[in-house]
Every structure is written in C-alpha cells, then in structure tokens.
Design a protein that fits this description.
- Helix content is 25%, strand content 36%.
- Strand 2 and strand 3 form a beta hairpin.
- Strands 4-1-3-2-5 form a five-stranded mixed beta sheet, covered by helices on one side.
- It is built from two helices and five strands.
- The chain is globular.
- It has 97 residues and is α+β, with helices and mostly antiparallel strands.
- It has a single domain, classed as Alpha-Beta Plaits (2-Layer Sandwich).
- It catalyses: an acyl phosphate + H2O = a carboxylate + phosphate + H(+).
- It is an enzyme of class 3 (hydrolase).
- Residues 9-95 form the Acylphosphatase-like domain.
- Its EC number is 3.6.1.7.
Length: 97
C-alpha cells in the first residue's frame, strides 16, 4: 500500500551518442538528486536504458533531463514505456544487455 502517495514508473531508452560519455553516471547523479529509485544500463545496440520510479513530477523532470543528457552526449531520441519491473531500493548501474 502506498498510503495515498502517487508514484509512477517508466522505462526509458535513450538513443544517440550516449555511451562512453558519462551518461550512466550522470543519470545516477540526477536520479538520486530527484529522489528516484531504479537503474541504468548500456545496451548492446549503443543505446542506454533506464528505469525511473518516484513521484510523477520527479519522473517527468528526469525524462526532460535525459532528453538533454550530460554535456558530451548527443541525444537523438528518447522512448518512454510503462513498466512494472522491480525498481529496487536505490538507484544503481546494471550490467549491459
């Protein structure tokens, strides 16, 4: 039971120049700052995938930040999907899939 606190969860796939540019660590820093739970990982196709769980405002803000990314990145696309995966208890980096 969530005691009336509204939370949302999404999985995002970020495309572009997003590997080798500090994107995962940047995501961890930003998600932690926003109080989100979840994870981030590289994908073999060159994209980055992340799961964000938290308040609707924080998740929406994180989506906007991901569209910009860290300074060295160049985001060309961002897809958002509903998710019911386990977000875990914090925010972590997961192995490449």
């Amino acid at each position: 039971m969530n005691c009336g606190v509204l939370v949302v969860q999404v999985r995002v796939v970020i495309k572009g120049m997003v590997q080798g540019v500090f994107y995962r660590n940047w995501t961890i820093e930003n998600a932690t700052e926003l109080g989100l739970k979840g994870w981030v990982r590289n994908r073999r196709d060159g994209s980055v995938e992340a799961l964000f769980f938290g308040s609707p405002d924080s998740v929406q803000e994180m989506e906007q930040r991901c569209r910009r990314g860290p300074p060295a990145s160049m985001v060309t696309g961002l897809q958002v999907f509903p998710s019911d995966d386990d977000p875990g208890t914090g925010f972590e980096k997961k192995p490449t899939v």
